[in-house]
């Protein structure tokens, strides 16, 4: 459900930053975090912090 809320907030222009914690694990079919967006969302990488088993990614939304 979180991806739907984030997608709607992106559509409404209410999001300034996105912070993702990427853990490379294959779980099968799964579900995408973000749902369909009506237009491309441009991101600017602010910071990428590698750590054992995870990469922390911080993006700003470009307007």
Written overview of the protein:
The chain has one helix and three strands; from the N terminus they run αβββ. The protein is α+β, with helices and mostly antiparallel strands and 63 residues long. It has a three-stranded antiparallel β-sheet, with no helix packed on it. The protein is flat, with a radius of gyration of 13 Å.
Proportion of β residues?
35-45%
Distance between the termini: 26 Å
Helix content: 10-25%
Low-confidence stretches: none
Instruction: Please state the average pLDDT score.
Output: 87
Radius of gyration: 13 Å
**So what's the overall shape?**
flat
Features:
63 residues; alpha+beta; 3-stranded antiparallel sheet; flat
Can you describe this structure in just a few lines?
This protein is of the alpha+beta class and 63 residues long.
What is the topology?
Blueprint: H1 2-11, E1 17-22, E2 43-51, E3 54-61
Antiparallel strand pairs: 1-3, 2-3
């Amino acid at each position: 459900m979180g991806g739907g809320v984030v997608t709607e907030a992106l559509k409404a222009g209410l999001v300034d930053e996105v912070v993702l914690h990427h853990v490379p694990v294959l779980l099968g079919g799964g579900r995408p975090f973000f749902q369909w967006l009506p237009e491309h969302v441009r991101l600017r990488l602010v910071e990428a912090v590698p750590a054992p088993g995870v990469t922390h990614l911080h993006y700003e939304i470009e307007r």
